[in-house]
Amino acid sequence: MKPTVFREPHEPQLPAPNNKESKMAFLIPNFDLAEKIGQDKVEINAATVDDLVKQAESRFGAAFTEAIKRSTLVVNGRAVSKLKGGRTPLKPADSVWIITPSGGG
Q1: H helical segments located in the chain
Q2: SS3 82
Q3: Which domains are delineated in the chain?
Q4: pLDDT (tens digit, 9 = 90+) per residue, 19-40?
């Protein structure tokens, strides 16, 4: 019997990393931003994380710009700050997640 895999309704289905069909990186916004921009996965042709952010800011405007100020970017599960920052190169089918810190009590 196969184990059951639970997914949140807003969690996008990503292609396998070796997907040869995609030529673009995937930007995965957090839930709040996805609702504001009306998309939970965006394909963007970008060479670096900085390029991806600039294109997304141009495409989605103030909602994206504000969300990115208080978020962490993660490329394929690794924080951009632990890689090459904004100069981190992107390959086809890379996943760039926007993670918003949570807090509270």
Answers
A1: 31-37, 49-60, 62-69
A2: helix
A3: 25-99 (3.10.20.30)
A4: 444 468 999 999 999 999 999 9
